Amino acid sequence: FTSATIGVEFAAFSCGADICWDGGANTREWTDAANWTEDRLPEAGEIVLVNSGGTTPIVLSSGSHSIGGITLRDAFTLSGGSLTVTGNSLFSAPVTLAGGSLTLQG
Fold first, then answer.
1. Could you say which DSSP state residue 45 is in?
2. Which of 7, 16, 96, 98 matches a 20 to 30 Å C-alpha distance to 80?
3. What's this model's pTM, rounded to 2 decimal places?
């Protein structure tokens, strides 16, 4: 038997925004803090990145939420509550408005 040494390298998750969707709760619910980096919801003024590659839409169904900007690369459904984006928005996946209020100010 010949022995061998292998190296394993772990990289920290870097999202390139103030807060990113990491899907940690596996619920696809915007309001589940465990789905976000640092296990907290996005706050007013923060730049948000949603880019998990999932096929099931992320759903916002309740509450009043305000963020500074968003890059959305996953399908998103607003079915209740409100989302206000005060800065730039980039939507490169389907957005479904089934209820609630979406305000884009940027």
1. T
2. 16
3. 0.84
